[in-house]
Amino acid sequence: MSRAAKALAIPAALLVAAEIAIRLSGTTSLAVAPPSSVVMALLAALGDGTMLAATRDTLACAFGGLIVGGAIGLVLGLLFGLVRPLDRLMELTVEAIRPIPSVALIPIGMLSLGFGYGFEIAIVAFACVWTMLIMTRAAIAGIEPRLLEVSRALRLSTHQRIFKIVIPAALPRIIVALRLAAGFALVVAVTVEIAANPQGLGYGILIAQQSLSPQLMLAYLLWIGLVGYGLNVLLSLAQQRLLGRAAMVEVRQ
Amino acid sequence: MGRADLHGLAGQNACAAGPTAIEFQNVDLSYSGKPILADLSLAVGKGEIVCIIGPSGCGKTTALRVAGGLVQPGSGSVTVGGKPITGPRRDVAIVFQDYGKALLPWRTAAGNVSLALEAAGTPVRERKDRIHVLLEKVGLHGHADKYPTEMSGGMQQRLQIARCLAQEPSVLLMDEPFGALDAMTRQTLQDETLSIVAETGATVFFVTHDLEEAIYLGDRVIGLLPNPGRIGTIARVDLPRPRNQLETREMPEFLRLRRTLFDFIEKAEG
To answer: Which overall architecture, per CATH, does domain B3-91+171-269 show?
Structure first.
């Protein structure tokens, strides 16, 4: 038996067992559905376009928030990493705001921004800022001191030092931060949709639950898992493609 | 073994004949109250190769860092080419021991040499030829597109030397540059360094813990004493140049110097 077949054997057996058990028991539970009807529901929702529209909304908000929050976090992280006095000055402020769970801002966001993309993007952005900020700052602090000494010895200008030494040296870790933040972005986007915002995959799963349709609810769950997995694979590929040598350095470290 | 007259030199001006390239004048330096260098005065002549030896903690690397402008002395001054050192200068190049950390892993060999040219503001169209010449000079022709991680230790150190030569330095500060290399590579690089220096006429301040390397390379070998770092001995090396790994190392004068310096180190450590 090949490795792939071995790896798939247990999940496949469990799915078959679930199918048989649910069919035989004749359960009327609203939390479970036979795997075959989940797949049928998924295909139907994909076919009529509702699932794809919901995916578009969720990804638009997740990426929008990731771009806005990631950019703010990156710039602040670079600033704090490069200008130590500024880092100390801002430390209390950052540490006071950072622990606020992003989803706790949903009520305020709803009141001030109303439903829709802006509100959801703002909450996702808040969640992404801190991951990027903290990890970018740490990436800069972790740069090999000898490299900075080389930049002094060669008399690189501040501009050259930042763009030729600091950013390339910190880049592998910044990319890891971006991948982590992307994971958070999807989680927070779906959470905001379940809790408040009437759009996207989170809202879809909520409506399926409320319309007593467990197969559709589970189909959404399965789809969100696939989207998350796809996103991670995509970012991982992008990391290798874009960075090449720098990504390999990170692996060696 | 003439130990008395060796120690008589401690604290005195160690002058070189001819024009001076590097001059330490009464340099004192301490880190958080602990004296590292005490009243260090030393002159290195233009084109001279001076090797610094001494037990660990004698401040030999610190002295090199002061000369490179990476550290400011507490009192006293260091001048290079007659001008006081207030920070790193382009005419003073530093070869670090840990070549693996001193090279940019995301740049190829050519890219690493290019960094020094970019810093100096060399026009883009001139860089390619300069890089080619520099890599050829250190025996890395044909390796321009390799990344440091694809190179052996000896090749990486050659690359760092090429980057330093790109600064067109009048002074080369070398901090145990071959300490991490195997014996054969070390000897090859010693000879290559000597021929490069002979070609460029650069002054060399060479820190090492290898006595034989110090004698083999140097015009003078200066032994430092620890706690605080100060000059303990100065040995003039009157061995003919060009030097030869076999013949030079078998000469009676080489062996005599090795014995003298070995005794010095043993006493300094004890």
So the answer is: 3-Layer(aba) Sandwich (3.40)
